[in-house]
Amino acid sequence: MKRVRPRDVLDLFTRIAIIGIGLSLPVWLYLAELRPRFVLHRTEKDLRALAAACDQALRSAEATEETRAQLDPAQAARLDLSLEIGRLPCKSYSVLTEQLLSEGVSRHALAALNLSATSDPAYPDLRAVLADADQLDAQLRVTSRLFDLAPLPLKEYLRNAKFRLGERLFFDPLLSGQGDRTCATCHVLVSATADGAALETHLDVSPEWLPGVPARNVPDLWNRDHNDVSTMLWDGRVQALAAANEGGLVSPEPLPTTGFENLMALQSIRPIIIPAEMLGEPGAGNVLAPKSLGAPLPEAVLTRLATRLYEDDERGKDTETYQRLFRKSYGVGAAEEVRPAHLGNALAHYIEIAFQSRETPWDRYLVGDLSALTADQKRGAVLFYGVGKCAVCHVGDVFSDFGFHSIGVPDMREEKDLGRFYATGLAEDRFLFRTPPLRNVTLTAPYFHNGQGKTLSEAIQQHLNPYQFARAYAEGGEHLMGSTEIDAISPILAPRSMITDAQIELLIAFLKSLEDRRADALSP
């Protein structure tokens, strides 16, 4: 047997070591170089999107900081919440970068990728998937907590006598002086209680009977019984300064507000007593306003209306008479016992029951159905409450602060609409208009007080660029907007917006989730 020499053993171990080093070198290279590159490549799409979203939020916060002192405390508080939600991607970005660093990715590589993702002001990387379903739901849980979000509270859909009375009044042409108009003439059911036109259509009356404000876009009637609703009309001339039972309702017409249950009740009867809306030209032939001299007295008009309704009962057109409905609703018998508040309260009761947002994906989501929203709707919701800053004004269950702001909407008409000024007479209120609620907004185009926004995309673009018409010229060669109009633009909109076109589509997707699925198929 051949003797094994120590040198042979050493040579064998040397060869094994060389082979081992040769085999381990690729593994070492993979761990040291290739694996971090692979890990970075695998997560690059998410990392770039998070970097861009975080950069967008930080730049937006920086630009907004200068305007904070011009906001009222409530707006400033909501702005802070929006900025906090906007920065949520920054936390996710930080977590992801720390994870990548622990897996060997270099800081230099991460910095280069961040610079690439944030150098384009259009943020092309935001078109990438920002978060998976679980991350989106987690962000919306934070949003819900910060903004105290809850589903819209609803009344029971009960067709009692008061409801039936209000419903019949809503569709009855006898409420108009010439018997040719109803509430549904302007609040058209197939247009989701708006009318689909840019401006309301006034009756053909003498100039002396025209309202003192320019024609406006017809507002919808959704959820107007909600406690947040503190003003009616684009300029808030009908408003609740305190509870109705405390005498807190205010209207420009000389009509006592005693007995009206809420703001909607008071607003409901106003078109009946206004010549250009439902009353018509006062004078011979007008059953409700037979005298042509002097402004028609609201109580006199409404007293004649009650008599007219009772007289119509005698013609036997309806099996359930007005007399019976008023008796069952209020315990009143004769026509002279019917008060203006009885009419307004019945109309408001019908409106607040019939036009509630009962079946919306957003409300289902808020009660725990996470599948109620699509991924894009969830992304849009995060944008709406976050970097879009929409909820600074469009807040609460019905998405309005019921305050008054200008977003730079131009008025092409010779007689410019002065907005809130008509209610207060204060110079600083010129060109300010009430924040419109947003439920079913996808069904009620055109938009703004003068119907200037034809599509929802145009309406959002106007918010993002409120100064876009500041340098425009009218047909006569003069500036379309005067300095007073430009100065009135809300400071919250002053900083340059960084919302991309793709994000506008996400916002529209979210607004679609506020749509009642019955709203585009209403029938009397």
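Next protein, fold it too.
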Amino acid sequence: MKLNKFLLAIVAVLGLTYCTSDFVDINKNPNAILGDQISAKYFITRTQVDLFAPNRYPYWRAQLIHADRYAGMFCFGFSGSWWSDGLGYTYSAGYTDAAWDYYEGYNSTINTFLQLTQPGGDLENPLTYATALIMKSMYYQKFTDTFGEVPYSESGNLDILQPKFDTQAEIYQGIINDLDEAMSLIGDATKTGDGQLDLGSNDLFYNGDLQKWKKLANTLKLKVALRAKGASGASFVDQAINEALSAPLLSDESDNALLPKDNVISQWNSSCYGDVWYNFGTGSDWTVSQPLIDLLQKNGDPRLSKYAQPAAGGDTLTIPHPDSDDDAMYQKRKDFILSALDDAGATYTEWTNGNGETVISLEKDKYYIGQPVRLNGFTYDYALYQFFSTPAQYIIQKKNDGKPIAPEIVLTTAESYFMQAQAALDGYGSGDANTLYREGLTQAMLVWGVDQTDIDTFLANSPMANLTGTGDMEKVAEQRWLANYTEGFEAWAVVRKLGYPASLAAGVDDPDIFAMGDLNGAYPQRMRYGSSPYSTNNDNLQAAIGRQGADVQATKLWWAK
């Protein structure tokens, strides 16, 4: 096969950026690439990494600042933080553009992989093309669930410089069609080929195992069909759900789709939480939210220590009295913050110093305490950093330390079972909702390394361990939310669609305490579009806004209306 210069250039860049064990020799001398050495396996790694672990700029501004906090899992706004926890709830072009440009920019990555492997492509291979279709489906599900209508059907067509925005109904139907095609192409195949044709270790999800890719595709199909359920014009839902339930889904621990973190690669090629945590000092740290800590702690969930660290505490933690607050406001805000300690069951000593300020003595590294979400800038001084839990070290581990870093969650077996339980509660399939739910709990804990003994204890004793006929959908939704810890985009979508945890979905209502933002306290339903489509594709963008609703965070997406 004779490859064009464009392809050779791309391969050379990939070799310099994403060196894998199979690519070492080529990476040493890109000019020595021979036609029979070129394989699609050298493209799949970047396709996976760029979507789930991009460089630090979008990882920080899109994932951490927006998705993880809209999901209600991480908080800023403590004393010493660079930001109020209201950041993201009031529109900022710079922060929003980082998210839009990240998703829009990925389009060229996935289209390169598709065009190379599709029929007639330079690296034509129907089995590798199937994995490209599945990656495309994961991309558009995340993209459309973040912004709503986006360019889809005309995107990637080099003859169309201003692609139309497709409705979410069209995008969802297209995703299901692509997933069906991918599963059909895979059939009974187990790998994409022999030798250079085998994705092998370059496939960071499944080491080239196509039957696991097929399960991933079918589980994603179930996800998008359940999300579309009840939406206007979603005529494909019942058939898609029933088809998904009748075919293999992610079913055991080895089926988890996780993206391992590279301990060496530059943060400007692929980032992790530690690249933000350690680069800026305490000012850019973040804490774990009260809804998450509460849900784990009050139900005896053994993931608590896997998700978070105890609050640092201290012997003399002074809550300063801002000059701007009168005594009544000082009392209100101070009491609100201390109520989070009370809610977590923390025991502390409180007294007043000579300046009339409250001083707290809280035992060090003992209590798991979640920070209330969306605190405003006025509450900043009261929310001492030492009061609240921070993420577990495994999550914020820095690179080049010789220690493991938590992988990126793509789609897990736990969520597969929770979605099957959700479908059963909605009357689909023949599975028992409680059995499926309990298996979901087991799988969700195994992902985080919980011992089987602790899992068994939880299943035997926790009020969250069984569906009882009352509040069952709430339990399923909350467990789907918890299972997506550190995958904020999906956790946020769960809250928007299912309405749980209810404390998050309800938003906030006290401007003395909370950042009301552009939403006036309501829960964010989408991100605003970036600046680029306004300048490069405005006519099509305006048509989308006309169908979807105003370009504001409060506009509900098609599947959430």
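About the second fold: Residues 40-275+405-548 form a domain with the Serine Threonine Protein Phosphatase 5, Tetratricopeptide repeat fold (CATH 1.25.40.390).
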